[in-house]
Queue: 4 jobs
Job 1
Amino acid sequence: MSLIEEITVKNVDHLGIVAGLIDEIGIVEIINQKLGVDNREKITSGQVIKALILNGLGMVSRP
């Protein structure tokens, strides 16, 4: 009988922390307020900027 267990490691980076700070500061809402929101949009300008920030920091997992 082997005493070695299988261990799974996942790298979560700091994506959750940065995304949480963006939400807490209200950056998405501020951008949407300044630029306005069109009902035809699938995602808002604020959401686009949030994604750009996270992607620019290299915190999006690559396949």
Note: The two ends are 36 Å apart (CA to CA).
Job 2
Amino acid sequence: MYVPIMKNLAQEIKVTKDLNQHFGESIMPLFELITEKYNDRFKIDPKTGDPVKTLKPGNKIKTKVKLPNKPEDIKTLDEIVTNLQGKRAFIDFFRHQPNEYKNVKVSDVQLSFSLSRDYSYYRDRMLEIKDYENLIPTISIKDGFKMSITDLNSFITELKKNNSCIALRITDNYLEDYIEEIAKLSHHDFIMLDIREQNAEAKFIELQEFQEIETNAKKILLNSPRPRKKYNSEFNNLEFTRIIDNIVATEYRQYKLNGFGDFGGLKDRLPSPGGGNNGSALALIFLKDKNKFFSIVNEDKTLGVTGYPYVVQEVLNNVSLLDKTNTCPIIKAIRDNAKKGSFGGWPSWIYYTLARYIHQQATK
């Protein structure tokens, strides 16, 4: 089983929609919910029943007046369910410590901030998952969010009243503290060991312990192999990069685990305010048969996103390596968009990287 870990941001949601056909029991996404999604409501003219429009400063066209969001407008889980089209997924109402991530755009992670500060609110939101039979509540235990045994057992019991299964996601430093609780999980459940950016070979003791735990739950090994602190400019051009060590994608079998999960070539990071146009244009194209990413980088980082025409040209120059069978829909999309003069920006290449990775993992 492969578990792609995704934030509920625009490009990840688009990937979910576009690659839905590949999801199932062998590929089951894990969504880290960091931002609240709402159905828009607009001010209505009581006389005509039409939306009220206004001319904002600097605009030439009037736009509808949006009303403030209300709790009843929330569609966070509904949006995911709609795009899953009946497929199953893990749901982690994502919490993080104040200094765990740097340079965060607060407006894009208000949900995560609220969940992190208020356990009761976190618990209530997790219990909402009961209304969606194809969503699996995922309890995450890590630094700053450790649970007492009593609280964990109580929470699992409450979740199982209305959910057919649950998942327990634990960082390796807390694994030993919860062995007895892991042993109680049923064959419907999942236990996820998260080693984050740590190398699997360096964690062999913890992996052996994980293998030896007696439980009926399915065992999944999660990791984040692309280092957060590495800039695009640090990747070498036109080579299989050593910066991303994707060993977990194969090593999990050595420990007789049921699956693995990662961020699909993306960094485990929260949205940032953005650094302007500067930065090296980078493509990371995954090849499953090599279990490596081929990196293409425009070494002139002053170009920013305007450096992507070069990157796209090199993708197309290396099609015989990157798409031998001419069946990759992501390479096709890159080619088709280039014909229209569109070479993509930062969001586009987030989409391409993740979509390509999932598509490759779906191949036999």
Note: The chain has a mean pLDDT of 96.
Job 3
Amino acid sequence: MILALGLILSLQAVTQARHAAAMAWEVRRAHTLLTHLMESAPRSFDEQQGDSDGFSWRVEVQLTGAERPVEVCRRSTTLTNIRSGRNYSAATLEACPPADPA
């Protein structure tokens, strides 16, 4: 009885460890993709979206309305894991991209 209980608890611990490792790997991939998109996505007011590395992603740039010598925009990136549905996001303030010539 004690041996069986020890075996069951050991198997549960292994399952929990695998689950924690999978979640940590997902967070690492999300962080890497967020960083890449924040640094390399084109600076424009057009919403950009796509799928990459098991994530659906979207990058948006919006005016903050701040009155300064340089217009300030909020650049946000949102990821959704396609399998788990977990959301990850990052945002920053930066100088707005130049307006498209009309």
Note: Residues 2-40 form the longest helix (39 residues).
Job 4
Amino acid sequence: MKNWMGKLVMFLMAGGLVLLGCGQEAPKPKAEKPQAAKPAAPAPAAKPAAPEAKGAKTVTLGFTASKSGKLKTEGERQINGINLWLEQVNGKGGLTLADGTKVTFAVKDYDDESNKDRVQELYTRLINNDKADFLISPYSSGLADAAAVIAQQYNKIMITTGAASDSTYKKGYTLIYQAYTPASRYLTGAIDMLGKLAPAAKKIAIIHEKDKFSTDVVEALKAYALSKGYQVVLYEGYDKDTTDFAAFINKIPPGTDAVMGGGHFADTSTLTKQLYEKKINAKMFAFLVAPPEPKIGELGPACLCVIGPSQWEPAVKYSPESAKALGLPWFGPTVEEFDETYKKKYNEDPSYHSAGGYAAAMILQAAIEKAGSIDTDKVKKALDEMNLMSFYGAVKFDTSKENHGLQAAHEMVYIQWFKDPKGTFVKQIVWPEAAASAKPFLCPPR
């Protein structure tokens, strides 16, 4: 696995412009007239007849999304990605199953209001009332975990996106599949980066949201930091609706080398701003979710030097060529094609949340195409066997009893905010080194 991942990083920046097309129905062989005047020739091998068309079917994808509440920004981006996929796959005529059935897709979604208590009620409604054939998770690990219970109970496949917590996949579920890199691998790269940029750094403060996802991330972060010889001088959690972080910021000891943690967009962007206003000096600020979002640039000087992990960035150009070198099949649009069509449709840059929404639906599409069916057991088999490369990166699932459905191949990248010569704040990929578009730097004094 280690060698495989090493190869992947080497090829991340390769370009490519190949779009995998949907398979077409094979033509029926034409009967040929026998010619009596000629000697008999060996009969050609029989060609398989095209499957008899079985008509058309609409497959419904059901999901909830945070169209309101604290997860509104991330939730809307995720919906954008799903809707772009829907427009593209239906625009090509949908899919043809093995029995000749033509399948197009529809979506049915509800606003979960960023509220876990609403999720199970709404997913039950999606299955029983709206007759959803397949499910996509809501954004956030807590909401996805609540939806997973219902999906498994009703024997429905659900692709989770915007949900990185490892713990969901340790509960014995067999129909839940994760698109994101797991939370346990979210911020460990920031420790490696700090060690390279500031070898003498020793003290780390961790301030985090007290939700499932963020807690999973920082527990893994703390363990990794301690294993590398760092001192964790502060380890504090805050409630999800916190808007004043003074009580936590005031606990950061003098001489702290790095401040890490955060949670989701709203709280992390506010924490970032208040750390700047209180002139907290550290060599590194590394936070969850907010840094990769283009909107964080609106914080101006407060965003300078801030680092964050991202599930996907347009500058990381996974390509058909890199897939071929790794012996993996390529599926779906190239990074450039996704980036261009997303911008055209929504008039904004895609974030990893929008890429993750598209990827979740695309993963389901790939499984249906391989299965040649929408039968749950056949699609599940295709997901269990999936091992491919796409614009979103590598996709493969753990199929062990202990971690079934956990993402096993997709990797994180890290971005950092810079100030360009025009005075505009821009983000660049800085880690891993082989995929970087710029070199990382330590934060200047505030």
Note: The first strand starts at residue 56 and ends at 65.
